Each structure stands twice: as structure tokens, then as C-alpha cells.
Amino acid sequence: MSNQVDPRLQRLLGGDHLASLRKRLRQRFERAPLEGAVDHIRVVGLSAEEHASLAALLGRAQRRSKSLQIDVHRVDADLRRAGIATSLRDALEKLDGPILHLAGVRLRLQGLWSGVVNGCSHPGLARLLLTPEGIGLLKRLARQDAIAAAKLCRCAEEVLRRLPAKGITRSQLAADVLGDAHALDNGRGAAALVLAVLRQTATPALDAAAPIADEDGETVRKSRGDVVLEPAASAERIRETWARAGVLVNELARPALFLNLPTNGTESDRWPLGEPAYASLRSLLRSPPRWDVAGRDVYVCENPNLLAIAADRWAAGCAPLVCTDGMPAAAQRCVLAQLALAGARLRYHGDFDWPGLRIGNQVMREHGAEPWRFGALDYIAAVRTASGLTHPLGGNPVEASWDGALTLAMREHRVAIAEEALAASLLQDLDDR
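The structure corresponding to this sequence follows.
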């Protein structure tokens, strides 16, 4: 911009050798109070060239000094009389472009974002955006663009008004509400905003599809001899959060496995007694069973093998049994929540290892389950009698929320015991003939 200014101004303040000085002067105007004028500027750490330039601007004698006090109003008047610029600020803008008044910019931005928040009519979204985390999320999703943020909020509100649903697929919901079947896919802004609202309003104890993060903020998926820790914001967690609102994402994945869960009336033949049965998240949400379990013990195990053993041993005479298949996913959590709401007394058993305790903490905390032969005394007895499916206990210890002595006993003996190794004692409780 320097080739467009008055040559006299260029000689006074222009050139690369004075760029640092101009930057410091500009910063003083940028940081001025919202309603306050800049009356004086004290500049320190001046080089010889910078001092000479400011002395000439101020009409002072040339003498070596590393600081100068500028009377801004006087300099403004001098520049106007000389016809060089209307003010010192104008001169600096002619040389290097517009100066942003930061306080004014912040005030305008606050007004824009306040308008975005105040324009939200959905109470859950409005509550979210009143928190630092919520407004921060919106700003990131909108890339700090208030207009884009307002559009995102409108889209999220349209979706939230349709919730809770009753087994609609996520793609159908997106198509119906937003006109794009992929508008609520993972990673899309509107989806992230809706999910944040759903998580904020969740009731953990009754949550059929709450986040599956453990106490350390990680999710746990366990298979025989294998433990995998996944990020808490995994696709499975997202699927479960949508499921809580009655929206199906990959609704046929990981169906819930159970045996002899009784239902009311005409549903009695929905799942034949004596044979392991599966229910998908799709069927559980679209046609919720009328579970006949009020006041009854419903046993919950971690491993499918134990359920198969129970079916072989007791068949139709087996007590109601549900399998979490490791850390329960959406369908398993939905079944457990439905059973708890129907009045069942859930009793949980799992592997005696650290991931098993994490899963136990989750099931007991979220679904009100009680331990089933899953305490310190049970573990000590199992260490003495279990002959198979045992291995050294590794990994980081986990505190059992229902029995602190269990963790101490496991740390002392350092033996992990698979649930199937305890089938003989567990089967005694499952005899319901």
C-alpha cells in the first residue's frame, strides 16, 4: 500500500526499516478500550532510526533516547494541517491497511453469537449452547461463522423436534427432515450437534444406549482372550446414542442374546422357551416386547458360552438369562433397560478379570443390577476350585464398585477366571424347574 500514499508520509513512517514501529503503534489503536480514545502512546525500546522518525513526526530535536511519549491529538492536528492524513491512525492505515478495533470486533461477534443462541427455540439445544463446551462445539462445527452456525442450529432443531422416534432409520430421518439421506452421517455438523444434545439430556440409570465409556473414558469390547480398548467417541457409542432416541443406525448389528425371557399374552410364542434367542435393536425399538418380569430375578452373564451351557442343561427350565456379550452395545443395553423398567431384579456375573469388572461396573451402575456370585468370597473360592479357562491376570486394576474387597483379592492372587469355568455353580441358580 505504500506506493499509494503521500510521499511525505512515506518518508516519515514508511519503509521496511520502520515496520516494527508501525506495528507497535497499530497495536495501541487495536487494543483501545471500547468507548475510549487513544490520547497518548508511549513507545519504548526504540532504535536510532525509529527515534529519529518519531522525533521528526513530533517536531522534536534529535537526541538519543529509547522511548518517546506521543500526544496523539497533537500529531493528528499536525498531520491534518500538512494535508498528509486526517490522523495518526489514518496515516498508519494508509501505509499498512485497516486497523481492527479488537474490542469493537469482539462486541460485534458477541452480538452475532448471542443472536444465534437466542434464536434457538429447542430447550435442549438452548441449554447446550449456554455452556462453554456447547458454544465451543458449535463454533468449531461452523468454523467460527455465525451465519453457518445459525443454519446448523436450525437443522439440529428440526431433527430434535422429531425425537424421540420409534425405530426410524437415521438415513430416513435425515431424508425426511433435512432432504439429504446423509445429512446425519457421522462427522456431519448437524449430527454432532444433535448427538451433543442427546447426551446432555440422557438419564444414565434408565439409558438404553448411553455411552459405553468406562471410568477411564475408554470403551471396552471383549472377546475370548482378547481385550480391545476403543475411543469413547466410537461409532458404537454414536449408534447407542441414536438408539436412545429411537433412531436406528446399523440396527441389525450385535443383536441381544437371551434365554427364556417371559413376555405377556400373545407375545408368549415370540421366542420359544428352551432355545437361545436373538433380538435386534430394530425389533426392540420398533416393537418393544411386553416383558413379564415384574418382581422376578433375571440373570445376566457376560459370555455367550455360558448361556449355551445353560440352555443345554436346563432348556425350558432355565431361569431368565441375558448375555451382554462383553461390554453391552445398543441392543443389549436396550434389553436391560426395558427389563429394569418392567420391574425385573437384574443379577450380573462376568469374567473375573479387569475388563470383566469394568463391564460389571457399567451394568450395575446404569441398570441397577446386583452382583450374582461376583464378589470377593466367590473369587477366592473359584481360585481354589477352578480347573480350566484360567490364566494370569494382567492389565491395570479396576475397582469393583459393588465390592472393594474383590479388587484387593484379585490383585493378591493375580489369577483371571473365565465365566465358563464357574458354570457348575452358576447353573445351580439357573434351575427354575
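Residues 103-201 form one domain.
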